[in-house]
Amino acid sequence: MHHHGYLWTGSKLRFDQEALRRPPHPEPPPAGSKPELVQRYQEVAAEFPTSDLPPLETVYWLVKPRSLVRITCDEAKDAAAWLGDQLAEYATRFESAAQRDTAHLTLLVTSAVERLASGTDVSFGFYLERPSFLSLALVMCSPNPLMPELACPMQ
Prior knowledge:
This protein is an alpha+beta fold. The protein has helices at about 10-15, 35-45, 75-90, 95-100, 100-115, and strands at about 1-10, 70-75, 120-130, 130-140. It has a 4-stranded antiparallel sheet with strand order 2-1-4-3. Strand 3 and strand 4 form a beta hairpin. Helix 3 runs antiparallel to helix 5. The chain is globular.
């Protein structure tokens, strides 16, 4: 078992494109569906697995391109240390002063170690200045308890 770290920053408008952040339904629209529904399904089916947008459900990072994996760690504490490094790097850009507080950031890292060690994925999001967004995620892999059928992106 190991953990993959993911980081995404971008415009809040792009982040808000929720249809591209959720996997397509397992079944395509039935025959006779409205053309715009079929077109939208095809667009999401093609774009979801290749898009760098953070998925709404953290576990779906595992279906994204391997190039999006920023770090792979065997130990929860190492994965959380990477998270702490990212938080420290971006903290000065956090829109909220409360989120920039070092005690708060330390608490996030500490809780990440505990959550990862218990088999839970970790995902945090922060508004940055200029309507931007930062998404950080640590995802358990090989297997993920929520979806053990998802293959490791590094294989």
